[in-house]
Amino acid sequence: RLDAPAADRVAAEAWARGTVPADDDEGAGAFASALSADRVRASEPLRAALRRARTLPGAGPDAAIALARAGDPGAAAPLADALLGSCPGCRSADALEELFGPLGEEGVEALARLADAALPFTPSPLEALFGLAPERAGALARDRFGAALAGGCVPEPLLPVLFAHGIDPFLPILEALEARGCDRARLRPGEPVAAGLARAASTDTGR
Q1: What pLDDT score was predicted for residue 86?
Q2: Which of 3, 25, 28, 67 has its CA 20 to 30 A from that of 61?
Q3: What contacts 59, CB < 8 A, 6 or more positions away?
């Protein structure tokens, strides 16, 4: 963080010498994330080392990200796999869109798979997909929301995303309640219920 070019150089030398601490998950990840995209793009031996590192539990996500940022061919699917195996919701929608977007159609396919696997309770991959392929994201959102309702669950984290992209979830929710014989006239929410453009979840006005 203090000297990115120096960290890039030190990390590249460690990968070249084979001295990256592979048995230290956190350390190996740091050596991958310190690499600049230009350096990775310019060195096939470095890219080969990072491809091998994608199988390491700790270094895998960082190695996959380094390859994706460098535009390595075939990087999208392993990137999605690495994120699914670690924490698909730990990166923001903007960060995911920045990673998958430059990878073209391959990136969209991999991001859609990531979003599908993460839904309905981890919506950031879906939000990123809305930025790259809105129609596909909308269809996926409706499908997974409907499946959750059919299973008797209202996935709260997904609601703000639906609202933000013009998809009203209230009618499907009411239909699901009525299908279960619920008299919605007797519902008494503990706080006001409003429809409209949702704020981010976990804020004073977002639910």
Answers
A1: 82
A2: 3
A3: 20, 22, 25, 28, 29, 31, 32, 53
Over residues 172-204, the pLDDT tens digits come to 888 888 887 776 665 555 555 444 444 455 555
Count of other CB atoms within 10 angstroms of residue 189 = 6
Number of residues that make up the chain: 207
Q: Residue 116 corresponds to which tokens in the numbers above?
A: 């599908």
Report whether 59 contacts 34 (CB < 8 A).
Answer: no
Q: Is the pLDDT of residue 28 over 90?
A: no
Q: Taking Cα atoms as reference points, which of 193, 207, 194, 137 lies closest to residue 165?
A: 137
Question: d(Cα 158, Cα 161) in Å, to the nearest integer?
Answer: 5
Residue type, 98: E
**Alpha carbons 161 and 164: distance in angstroms, whole number:** 5
Q: In this structure, which amino acid lies at residue 27?
A: G
